Amino acid sequence: MASLSSLSEELGEIEGQISDIFRALSNGFQKLEKIKDSNRQSRQLEELTGKMRECKRLIKEFDREVKDLEYKSDADTTKMLSEKKQSMIKELNSYVALKKQYASNIENKRVDLFEGPGEGFAEENGFLASNMSNQQLMDQGNRMMDETDQVIERSKKVVHETVNVGTETAAALKAQTEQMSRIVNELDSIHFSIKKATQLVKELGRQVATDRCIMALLFLIVVGVVAIIIVKIVNPHNKDIRDIPGLAPPAPSRRLLAYPY
């Protein structure tokens, strides 16, 4: 570990954590061998499985750190780090194989509990039963019934949890389906609104264009009238320009000549 620490503090720390986990796994499997109850064995095995997951994660971190150091390490150091990683993986795989073996043994015990003992066990149990008193037989039977009831209760609990998970999943899928349906309806409504708005914009555009044309014509008419008025005022004797009704200049007043009598 000192050599790894000299290369990288993180490598040394990771190796130390992995070594601690390997020691815990070794002690845990030794303890597992002494446990007779299958339930306690299962709990112990789950705890050891968690440690193995953590060890796998640390080995991945170790591999990443090794790859980061490859560009500045010589060939011997790179080889040493690679061998160290392979050694860790090999040791972890040995514990994984041991875990699978214990899990298989625990599962076989549970199957035997449900299916009943085999022929060889039946003969042995018959021999033991012949040497046991009635009270011992009753105690043994009650103990086996209690263990069977515990297994059944655990199975019922698993089934109940499975049903609950299935119900929750179905409810979640139903809610998601309804939400998707609402989203589709909202999209249809938005599309229809956009279509109507486009039509309204087009109609408004046509109306605005029409209004502009009318305003232009009115403007031209007003300009023309104003021009005629101006010309008439400036040159009232111009006969080429007709008088505008209502705007013609007033006719000159006639004067009567007085003749003497």
From TrEMBL:
It is a single-pass type IV membrane protein. Residues 45-72 form a coiled coil. It is found in: Membrane. Residues 142-204 form the T-SNARE coiled-coil homology domain. GO terms for cellular component: endoplasmic reticulum membrane; ER to Golgi transport vesicle membrane; Golgi apparatus; late endosome membrane; SNARE complex. GO terms for molecular function: SNAP receptor activity; SNARE binding. One of its GO terms (biological process) is protein transport. Keywords: Coiled coil, Membrane, Protein transport, Transmembrane, Transmembrane helix, Transport. Gene3D superfamilies: 1.20.5.110. It comes from the Eukaryota. The chain crosses the membrane at residues 214-234. Belongs to the novel plant SNARE family. PANTHER family: NOVEL PLANT SNARE 11, VESICLE TRANSPORT V-SNARE PROTEIN VTI1-RELATED. This is t-SNARE coiled-coil homology domain-containing protein.
